[in-house]
Amino acid sequence: MEMLNLPTFDYKIKHSGANVMIFDALRRKYVLLTPEEWVRQHFVHFLIGTYRYPKSLISIERGTTYNKLQKRTDMCVYDQEGKPYLLVECKAAHVPITQDVVKQVSVYNQVLQARYVVITNGMEHYCWEVNFETRQFTPLQGIPPASGVEV
What we know:
This is Type I restriction enzyme R protein N terminus (HSDR_N). Pfam families: HSDR_N_2. This protein is of the alpha+beta class. It has two helices and nine strands; from the N terminus they run E-E-E-H-E-E-E-H-E-E-E. The chain has one domain (about 35-140): tt1808, chain A, CATH 3.90.1570.
């Protein structure tokens, strides 16, 4: 896997037949190591290690329904009341972050209504604050602080 524009972490890799697996500390199991999973694991550890987001408030690949279609969010951070606070969409490092990716995350967030949205491919990271009343996305210079998940 390639180097990302995220801090490194002490990851655990194992082989299972022809598959390479990486340990997911949140799901507490080994998962298939894909280029997107590589980015997701780095970003999870970035949120926990650098921004001090509590592990207990982060959900990975949670299902949601939009227009009767089942969708999966890559990562969602919840506040202490269980409301979505930060929605994260991860792409593989070689996948450019395009308007279509922004649209995909916006569709997911119409259901979840997280205050913040992040899109990352491990090389580039974009964050917006969402105002649902005005339907405005305000670009931010960085990731919102974990203090926002506290009541």
